[in-house]
Each structure stands twice: as structure tokens, then as C-alpha cells.
């Protein structure tokens, strides 16, 4: 028997953006535990904006388990928050709102900044470094500094060891800004793994004394790029049937539901979706082939293949909750007739 360190991880009740929380319990197993081996657990919801002090118990229900390479005999246990009955999803549990379908594939591109002492990592104490230009996919100390790549590489290895379907990384347009991509067949799978990857990044950067800044426009109204979390998505129907009339009806539905989408695409998005820096304005909806200034970018291959394949919604921002984003996209897709 081995004593495993089980890190139960959940999302708290802060709005508009929940925070990751975690606590450890030790349990003995003969081999690495499966989901069925993991018991429900509880926590004090009055400390996480999830309950009143007078009746503070919330329930943690394990939904995914991953190996934790940073910890000897460690497991990362991703949980949904449930009401005290253990069966009713807590109102803050947005994962439970996804009408899932294994045929829905999602690829999220998470952009973020590393911050140190209140400034992007690599910025001088006063003023600004050289303007944007050579940082994106750059190499060399002047481009990426000395510790960001080390953190990014270590994060990638932790994600791969956990079995997260990490697809790639790149240095981004602003100094101190990076991106990683996660793809999943099943929207819950993709969104779960995005939250786990965020957890691993936040935990890893503790020892470097570096913060992860997920705000979508941390440098405000300047010529420094903001951070997005583009949501690439496809359904079985989009991949296998598609067609121009269906695609146009889908885009009409997205236009009609624009406000519902923006509502869950992350806070302060008006600062980022300005129509500049490869974005569409927050109150406009547009789609375009290979157009990075559109709300939805249609890959070149899509019309070429008979309007089949995947689409990229460029509006979700870096602080958005992938559960809520996927939930809204699938709701709008479901409103369009495939007959
Ligand atoms: P870019 O930076 O040019 O927008 P990336 O390579 O960073 O492109 O991201 C493209 C994303 O599209 C990847 O995360 C990938 O997983 C996702 N993707 C590719 N094919 C599909 C598909 N059929 N359905 C959903 N997502 C897809
Ligand atoms: Mn990308
Ligand atoms: Mn990017
Ligand atoms: Mn970008
Ligand atoms: Mn993209």
C-alpha cells in the first residue's frame, strides 16, 4: 500500500472570475487511484464565497484525476462543487451547465503574462522595453529574458506528465507574454484540462516569485497587446456535414446571441475588443476567412472543404472560464437546425 497525496482542486465562488482552490488529504491505495476510489470531501464554503457562515459545508465531488509529477505519490483531483446533499450542483458549479457531447471538440489558446513586482517580467523598473515586434515566437535573452522559458518548459512537462492534452506553446506579441494550447474531444475534457493547466502554472510559479497575470489588458490602453483565450470548436455535424447554408445560419445565431457570448467571455473585455490589435470591437459581430480582425475566424480550409471543419471564436479572453465559454457556444450551436 502507498500513501497518496490527493490534492482536491475546485473553483471558488468569486465573480466574474473564479479562483482555483486546493487542499490535500492522504489516503492509502494499492495503486494509483481511479475516480471510483476517490471519496466525496467537504470544505468551508463561507471562506470561498460559496456559503453563509451559519451553514458553510460544501461538497467536493471528484470528476477527473491526474498524476502529479511535482509531488511524490501525488494525485491532482479535479472536483465539482455540490450542495450538502452531494447530488445537486452548487450554483457556482458551471461545469454542470455544459450539455456535453463527445462530438464537440474544443481547442483553447491560453494567453497570459508573467508578472514580477507589478510589471511584466522583463520590463525595466521604469518605462518600457523595446516596442512589440520581435517578442512573438522570439528567441534570445532580449526577446524572452532568462527565466520565462524555464518556467514554460517546466509547465509543459508537468502538463504532459499529468496526461493533459497540451498541444503547444509560443512566446507572444508582448514582452513577458506567452501562450499554450489545449485540445480535447469533449468540451468538458478540454475545459477540465485548461483549468488543471492553469493550476499547474500558478503552483509552479510560486517558487520563482512570479505571478501569472490573466487579465485581458494588463497594460491598459497602450500599444501592448492584450491576452485572449481563442476558442476553436467543431461538432460532429460541422466536421462531417457542414455546408454553406448551415454555416450561414450558424453565424446568424452567433450574431443574435452576441451579448450572451460576451457576458461569459471574460471580464473587462471592452478593454481588449477594441477593433485594434487583431480584435473585433466588442459590440460588433463579424466572421471572416483567415481574418484575425473578425469575431469568428474561418480557416482557409473550411470553405475549401465544403464548409466543413472547425471555427475560431476569437472573443473569449484570457480570464474567461472555459466551462462557461464552451457551455454558451454549445447552446448557440444547439439552437440551429441541422435538418
Ligand atoms: P492560431 O494561433 O493560428 O490561432 P493555434 O495553433 O494556436 O492557432 O490554435 C489552433 C487551435 O485549433 C489548436 O488548439 C487546435 O487544437 C484547434 N483545433 C484544430 N482542429 C480542431 C477541430 N477540428 N476542432 C476543434 N479545435 C480544433
Ligand atoms: Mn495560437
Ligand atoms: Mn496567440
Ligand atoms: Mn494574441
Ligand atoms: Mn488563435
TrEMBL record:
SUPFAM superfamilies: Glutamine synthetase, N-terminal domain, Glutamine synthetase/guanido kinase. It is found in: Cytoplasm. Gene3D superfamilies: Glutamine synthetase, N-terminal domain, Glutamine synthetase/guanido kinase, catalytic domain. One of its GO terms (biological process) is glutamine biosynthetic process. Its EC number is 6.3.1.2. Keywords: ATP-binding, Cytoplasm, Ligase, Nitrogen fixation, Nucleotide-binding. The keyword DNA-binding does not apply. Residues 4-86 form the GS beta-grasp domain. One of its GO terms (cellular component) is cytoplasm. It catalyses: L-glutamate + NH4(+) + ATP = L-glutamine + ADP + phosphate + H(+). GO terms for molecular function: ATP binding; glutamine synthetase activity. SMART domains: Gln-synt_C. Its cofactor is Mg(2+). Belongs to the glutamine synthetase family. Catalyzes the ATP-dependent biosynthesis of glutamine from glutamate and ammonia. Homooctamer and homotetramer. PANTHER family: GLUTAMINE SYNTHETASE, GLUTAMINE SYNTHETASE 2 CYTOPLASMIC. This is Glutamine synthetase.
